[in-house]
Structure formats: structure tokens, C-alpha cells
Amino acid sequence: MNQALLNSMTAAERRLVAETERDAMAGLDEEELLALHTRIRRARSKYVSVYRRKASGAVVKRGGRGFSYPKNQRDRDKAEVFERALASVSREVGVRATQSAAELRASRLAAARSGGSGPRKTATRVAAAKKPAASRPRGVKKTTGGVKKDASSRAMGARRQAKRDSR
Hints:
The chain is mostly helical. It has a domain at 1-112. Helix content is 76%, strand content 0%. α4 (30-62) runs antiparallel to α6.
């Protein structure tokens, strides 16, 4: 990466980029990687939107997109740094998700093999089957898909409430 650009970043931004180094991500579990992914994505989105906002304002002022392009280099470069960091974190999340899926599959197969060979139901299995499944506490997520779905539901609710409040 461009060292001058890294030096021009704030300390918090440099720490965020440093957290995406391979050695730093080695000790993180899947949930921590997802949290890092979210922080990196927010930083990238911030600089992309800052770049677009400044660029669109400068087109009229400078007389065209070609004239305003070089004036906005720093924000474009920062967005690119965070884009690369996001790509590396995304790759690592994918690797960890694949590993955890393989581990889960292996444990389920082992449990199925050791559980017995027939469809016989004992009294405890029948009682357990009739008992309703315990619901999860609200803060517990099952998978990364659950995290995304919950966030989407919260965002939709917030938009709906904001629409009602504006009436």
C-alpha cells in the first residue's frame, strides 16, 4: 500500500487497516471476523460516499468530470485501501465459515453414526419429541445468515417507524 496515504490516515484508521493483516486476523474467531468486516465495510462506505459527494459537487464548479477527477484523489485512495482490507477480511471469513461448516458436518455425522441404526423409539425419545423446543434467547444468533436477517429486520422496522413519525 501507499505509505504516504497510510501516514495521512488517522490513528484509528491505521489501526483498523492493521487489524486486517494476516497475522492479526489469525487469532480471531468467526464472530470477531464478522465484527471486523462490519467496521471495515462502514469505513469503506464512508469514504466512497465522501468521494462521490465531493466529486459531484466539483463537476459544476470545475467544469466537468475530467477536471474534477484529480482533485479528489485522497478520498478515492482511502476508499481503495479500505476496499482491499475488506476483501482480505471477506476471504478470511469465507475460509473460517467453510471450516466451521466442515466441523459441524463431521460432528453431526459422528452423532448420527453413534446414535443407533434403527427407527426404534424409546420412551425418552418419545417424550423428548413431544416436548416443545426451547426458544433461543434474543441475543443468541444461530448462523451468520441470522445476523444479517436480524439486522435487516431491525433496519426495516426503523424505516417504517421513521415514516410514521414524519407524518
